Every structure is written in structure tokens, then in C-alpha cells.
Automatic annotation (TrEMBL):
Protein name, UniProt field: Peptidase S26 domain-containing protein
GO molecular function: serine-type endopeptidase activity
Organism name: Ceratopteris richardii
Ranges where the Peptidase S26 domain occurs: 1-56, 67-109
InterPro entries xref list: LexA/Signal_pep-like_sf (IPR036286), Mito_IMP1_subunit (IPR052064), Pept_S26A_signal_pept_1 (IPR000223), Peptidase_S26 (IPR019533)
Top-level division of the source organism's lineage: Eukaryota
Localization (cell): Mitochondrion inner membrane
Family: Belongs to the peptidase S26 family. IMP1 subfamily.
Pfam families on file: Peptidase_S26
Length: 117
């Protein structure tokens, strides 16, 4: 999620009710279990929710290879803020709500970088 969040050292406050009741909106930053390795947590931005259609470039450099994806019920489309280095829904597809762990509300560490999301 660089540059929004640092790669290491940030401490985030998560709110878990939104993801349990599927009240996640486009633009929210969420923490989820990785669809590729459930032991790993990922932090990504929600770009589309169920029922949305999104035009996706599989690789940021491939301007002519866009494809349209309809987000199925019970899923969201997650993408990192740095498309050149992020491994996200462009690689593993829509993510089920069940893998979402929480919605980021605040960055509380380091103290000089407090920020509400």
C-alpha cells in the first residue's frame, strides 16, 4: 500500500464490524487473508464491490489488454496503491468477504504520522 502506508513499522487500528456485515465501500482500505496463502495478511484498497463491473489491466504496462470483470455476489476487488509492485486481485481475482479481517480506520504508529482513513 505504499505510498499510503509504509511497508514496515505502521500500526493500524482495524474496525471489524463493517466486513462482517458486508458494509465495505469503494476506496476503503482493508486487511484480508491472502487468497494465495491464508497464513499471510494483506492490506489493500477496495476498488469494486459485488455487482460492480471493473475494467482491469492485468499488467500496468499493457494498455491494450484491458478486460472487464463483473464482481460476483459476496466478493470485492482489492488492489494496491502501487500498481507496478502490487500483487492483488489482478493476479488472483475477486476476493470473498470471508477473507476480509477488518477495515483500516487509523494509523496510530508512528506517532508523528497519525492519520484517519
Amino acid at each position: 500500500m505504499f505510498p499510503t502506508l509504509n511497508a514496515t513499522g505502521d500500526l493500524l487500528f482495524l474496525e471489524r464490524f463493517s466486513v462482517r456485515f458486508q458494509k465495505v465501500n469503494v476506496g476503503d482500505i482493508v486487511v484480508a487473508c491472502s487468497p494465495e496463502n491464508p497464513r499471510v495478511l494483506i492490506c489493500k484498497r477496495v476498488l469494486a464491490v459485488e455487482g460492480d463491473s471493473i475494467s482491469v489491466l492485468p499488467e500496468p504496462y499493457a494498455q491494450d489488454a484491458a478486460k472487464n470483470v463483473l464482481i460476483p455476489k459476496g466478493h470485492v476487488w482489492l488492489q494496491g496503491d502501487d500498481p507496478y509492485k502490487s500483487r492483488d486481485s489482478r493476479h488472483y481475482g475477486p476476493v470473498p468477504y470471508a477473507l476480509l479481517q477488518g477495515k483500516v480506520q487509523l494509523r496510530i504508529w508512528p506517532p508523528h504520522s497519525w492519520k484517519k482513513f
